[in-house]
Input
Amino acid sequence: MNTPGTARVFSKILKLGDVTETRFDKEPRFPYQRVDGYLREWARLDETRTTPRPATMGQSATKAWSRALEVTVPIASHPYHIFPTVVEELADKFDGAPALLSDSECITYRDLAKRANQYARWALEQGLVDGETVSLFMPNRPEYLAVWVGITNVGGVVSLLNTNLAGLSLAHCINTVEPRHIIVAAQLIDAFLSAQPHLAGSAKTWLHGDAPVELPRIDHEVDKHSGRKLTSDERRPVTIKDLALYIYTSGTTGLPKAAKINHYRIMQWSHWFAGMMDTRPSDRMYDCLPMYHSIGGVVALGAVLVNGGSVVIREKFSARHFWDDVINSDCTLFQYIGELCRYLVNTPPHPRETDHRIRLCCGNGLRPDVWSDFKNRFRIPHILEFYAATESNVALYNVKASPARLVAFRHFSGIGTP
Output
């Protein structure tokens, strides 16, 4: 909003949210009536504003922010309700509906929960205890999510390794988190072998897929385990305070650093963006961003899955095949980084570039000089731009859907630090 009154309302709401987020271990009582009152005041101020409101598919900034608050505020009051638990609940609710799709796989909600349970039992069989780490070196594919959901469900921590690394830089990322196990996809075995001489510790290496090396096959090992729900004896008392993932920084200012991501932050990211994007079962997200990053690996997936939609996973972005892929997959959402939009704008016209059903694009780094061309040429109804960093606890959102106007601020307290 653009008035002092609405700024005061934002400040009141965010202060309430911060109290909740920093006290989740003390079962806080969030003042829902007060925040409802603030939201009504914000809506009233929005209605009396004199500046014109841009078209946003009928959803106002007030409604988007209100939805996001509504689904994230209760997270702190349910410390044992973590994302792996959400996956189990989604399997009960959506069962055979598609959850994750790729060129070679279609995993339903039930399949995802079963595969995650198999990885959980593998972790238990290996004697993985709370806080111990498994490093994952795997390209984008539906199995990727099942791996870390299953292992973190029983208290393990998964470090998501950058698949473009090799040699000393890859070894550094592995050594930093001191894993007990390393899972390596067959396609990446050469890059891993280049790092192996530099590895410290005695982590056990597992191969996923077929490659000409003498390593145990984790995909075969996991297949031996049941995919049924974990029993009470198998479950571990994992809470939203516990560490879940290591996600690495880009390494532009030195070697990559491992940011600590707890279960609370995963729940916040997934549900906050679900509220902001107003995701629904009919939605299908196009995700061609790396799954070892927070946006491609948590936000793009979690924001759609928590409301019963599906995600199309691609290993890499291709400007040439983008529109055919989006249209043939019947996608309604697209997760971007700004340079992807620039590449699309700079490609020659595609005969199907406006035949899509995309209703919203969400991402960061879309520069003002690209925004309008991207939106107008490809007839994108709505763009949700934000600025954040995995290792940061602050995010900015352009809820007014116009270039260079970051008008909403979100402070995520008490969450992962490098």
User: Anything to note?
Assistant: The mean pLDDT is 85. The chain has three domains: 4-77, 106-262, 270-411.
